[in-house]
Amino acid sequence: MTVETIDVALGDRSYKITLGANILDTIGELCQSLGLSGTVAVVSNSTVAPLYYDRVRVSLQAAGFRPLLIELPDGESYKNSATLNLIYDGLIEGGLDRGSFLIALGGGVIGDMAGYAAATYLRGIPFVQVPTTLLSQVDSSVGGKTGINHERGKNLIGAFYQPKAVLIDVATLDTLPEREYLSGLGEIIKYGAVLDGEFFTFLEENAGPLLDRDKAALIRAVACSCAIKARVVSEDEREGGVRAVLNYGHTLGHAVETLTGYGAFLHGEAVAIGMIQAARISREFGFCNDDDCARIEALVTRLGLPRQLPVYPADSYLEVLSHDKKVRQSGLLFICNAGIGHYKMERVRDIGALLRVCGIQ
Ligand SMILES: NC(=O)c1ccc[n+]([C@@H]2O[C@H](COP(=O)([O-])OP(=O)(O)OC[C@H]3O[C@@H](n4cnc5c(N)ncnc54)[C@H](O)[C@@H]3O)[C@@H](O)[C@H]2O)c1
Ligand SMILES: O=C(O)C(=O)C[C@@H](O)[C@H](O)[C@H](O)COP(=O)(O)O
Ligand SMILES: [Zn+2]
């Protein structure tokens, strides 16, 4: 069994990402090595808990912990304050104190909500990320963005709160439904498109093996993605500057998720649509060319992701975009493609003009 580690360097908040196949049963040892002890609440959902909680529980008990399960309903539409309250209820009923900790076992929805609960319960208890979707393994479990949605905007309530460790077992992806797997590929494309041209070429050349979930291609894609994200987060933990590049494709992507009520499109699908439009907008600004746009669209298509921006009136898009976290008085910070593997950030006052490039009048 080959196990890789990737460091997320953040001073006294530094941690390791441990990545391998069939390593879920090492969670107990990992928590021991972090100096954690006592009661641990494992936050999961009604899909993931029946698949993986038992293995996690056995490993934790063998290492001397007292695990309890907090099982939430499944879905992006539950990433809200009502579900967050269910976590707090479980933590209070389970008697978790400041010597306890929490494990997020599931996809990005569980990771974001459990992380926010850990950040706020008793003003903060430690937590460990055990991501079980491709998207959460390559993106959401790393970097400490935690939070919930509001009906008027994605992730509007949240905190930067780093985990103590991330344990990625790619074997858990064996049970992941195809559409969810493809959604994870959407965020992987993002890293290549704006941060690493060689990685983008690797994705173009390995689309087949990746679609077949070939373990070698998959482990390389997950490891590269985590390394890229770790580097960006280490440079700019709280998105004062370069970290905003990780929002490539998200301005329109988040708007699509919000307008469609957090159900019609998966996050990675919405990001894929947003990346294609962001490339077209970037070309309009003169930052990238036809070939860059064509390569992004071709890879999105090859990896089975949607391309079409859903049509809503411009006013609906404008209302949602006005709540984007990158909006300031000086305009919306738009993340542009500046040629494959490169980015440029541009403040845009006239958001309507961006929408017109996308065919939204
Ligand atoms: N914090 C961040 O930096 C960050 C980054 C990217 C995305 N996100 C957030 O992550 C969320 C999307 O995460 P996601 O794509 O993981 O969705 P998700 O958490 O909804 O999981 C997708 C589906 O897969 C199921 N599932 C999870 N693991 C499984 C497994 N191993 N086998 C079978 N089924 C499994 C889940 O129950 C769910 O039905 C969005 O809310 C997005 O905003 C956050
Ligand atoms: O980690 C980041 O920074 C990201 O932007 C990663 C994104 O893929 C992710 O979807 C994140 O949740 C978006 O954050 P938000 O601050 O734009 O809500
Ligand atoms: Zn994202």
Automatic annotation (TrEMBL):
Pathway: Metabolic intermediate biosynthesis; chorismate biosynthesis; chorismate from D-erythrose 4-phosphate and phosphoenolpyruvate: step 2/7. NAD(+) binds at residues 74-79, 108-112, 132-133, 145, 154, 172-175. It catalyses: 7-phospho-2-dehydro-3-deoxy-D-arabino-heptonate = 3-dehydroquinate + phosphate. Its cofactor is NAD(+); Co(2+); Zn(2+). GO terms for cellular component: cytoplasm. GO terms for biological process: amino acid biosynthetic process; aromatic amino acid family biosynthetic process; chorismate biosynthetic process. It comes from the Bacteria. Binds 1 divalent metal cation per subunit. Can use either Co(2+) or Zn(2+). Keywords: Amino-acid biosynthesis, Aromatic amino acid biosynthesis, Cobalt, Cytoplasm, Lyase, Metal-binding, NAD, Nucleotide-binding, Zinc. It holds the Pfam family DHQ_synthase. InterPro entries: Dehydroquinate_synthase (IPR050071), DHQ_synth_AroB (IPR016037), DHQ_synth_fam (IPR030963), DHQS/DOIS_N (IPR030960), DHQS_C (IPR056179). It is found in: Cytoplasm. Residues 70-181 form the 3-dehydroquinate synthase N-terminal domain. One of its GO terms (molecular function) is nucleotide binding. Zn(2+) binds at E187, H250, H267. Its EC number is 4.2.3.4. Residues 184-327 form the 3-dehydroquinate synthase C-terminal domain. Belongs to the sugar phosphate cyclases superfamily. Dehydroquinate synthase family. Catalyzes the conversion of 3-deoxy-D-arabino-heptulosonate 7-phosphate (DAHP) to dehydroquinate (DHQ). This is 3-dehydroquinate synthase.
